[in-house]
Amino acid sequence: MRAAALAALCSSTLASLPAFAGPADYVYSPIVEEGEREIDFKAGTAKLRDGGGRESAYSVGLGWGVNSWWFTEVYAKSHKEPGEKAGFDAFEWENKFQLTETGKYPVDIGLIVELERPHDRSEGYELRWGPLFQADLTNRVQANLNILVEKHYRAAEASKAELGYQWQLKYRAQPAFEYGLQGFGDVGPLSNWEPRSEQPHIAGPAIFGKLHVAPHQAISYNAGLLFGLTHGAPSTTLRMQAEYEF
């Protein structure tokens, strides 16, 4: 039943899908753990095409599961363009809302809302939001699909809202080590999609795991090696995330 529900969801949205994935972006889950606190570190590096060099990004965050349906986290982010030194890039406030009770329906649904204040004030404020979907296709295979909209406000130059996506398939072999696939991409402005060849779409293998280090303490990790599927995407992207949960 869950597999059929997610398949229907995918078929109705993939045609209009899109996420303007930075090197350190990760796949959001709609699930919220009440009372959980975490220190979160993310890093990623992307090899650009046509000798464009390498772009890298890093972030560290502190998060808290306020209740059974709301998780909030604050990040400090760093970014490095090709040929430049890494430097402070932005503060980000992420809020995740779980809209359905875990496992009650064929698909778990959530909502992500992120507000970013770039160091470069001319960029204004960046708002990213969208629905999050998660389902068990089998007893061991979990699927995620997220549809995201991103727009800059109060920027020196006007910008249009852009449409993006994230997806993930994960085989739950054992808690300490799981594996699967991830993908990110975007199609450009909502009202005027970019040509297919210019859209950045990436996908590739990923690993996941959770290691319990003490009572009520654990380290969760995930990492992916993603390959550009279009000329508008980096040729390769290596990304990782580690969370200390307590």
Structural features:
single chain; 246 residues; mainly beta; Porin; twelve-stranded antiparallel barrel; 1 helix; 12 strands; 59% strand; disordered N terminus
Describe this structure in words.
This protein is mainly β and 246 residues long. It has one domain (2-240): monomeric porin ompg (Porin). It is 5% helix and 59% strand. The protein contains one helix and twelve strands; from the N terminus they run αββββββββββββ. The protein has one helix spanning 2-13; strands spanning 37-47, 54-65, 70-80, 87-98, 108-118, 125-136, 141-153, 162-174, 177-189, 201-214, 217-228, 236-245. Strands 1-2-3-4-5-6-7-8-9-10-11-12 form a twelve-stranded antiparallel β-barrel. Strand 8 and strand 9 form a beta hairpin. The longest helix has 12 residues, at 2-13. The chain is globular and about 45 Å long. 30% of the residues are buried. Keywords: Signal. This is Transporter. Residues 1-21 form the signal peptide. It comes from Ramlibacter aquaticus.
